[in-house]
Amino acid sequence: MKKLFLLVVFAFAVIAVQAQSDNKGAVIDFKEKSIDFGDISQGDKVEHTFVFTNSGETPLVISNVAVSCGCTAPAWPKEPVAPGATGELKVVFNSAGKMGKQNSVVRIYSNASEPIEKVSLISNVLPRGK
């Protein structure tokens, strides 16, 4: 009897886990995760708009966007992104005071199945006039 009870409990647990994995919740899918601007001159500002889709089944809510340095400024949708809808994350990188290879990482915090996503702006900052 004890074995039968344990078997029934195990079966319910498997069914519950399977049911949760079928519910996709919010899923953020970026069209691209990085952009490489190549060589830019020191002091240049470059920007890119990362397009994403909520391919999940519930609204996507971006709670915060964090950058790796003050040289990068993000703008993101403050309203929920409906299932199947697209949104845009605009990021501006200011190369003032920077030199050499730069990889500005932007972390996106949301209610998606992967709660932290990353995108990046890559550039090689050269002295002005070169």
Automatic annotation (TrEMBL):
<dbReference type="InterPro" id="IPR011467">
    <property type="entry name" value="DUF1573"/>
</dbReference>
<dbReference type="InterPro" id="IPR013783">
    <property type="entry name" value="Ig-like_fold"/>
</dbReference>
<keyword id="KW-0732">Signal</keyword>
<feature type="signal peptide">
    <location>
        <begin position="1"/>
        <end position="21"/>
    </location>
</feature>
<protein>
    <submittedName>
        <fullName>Uncharacterized protein DUF1573</fullName>
    </submittedName>
</protein>
<dbReference type="Pfam" id="PF07610">
    <property type="entry name" value="DUF1573"/>
</dbReference>
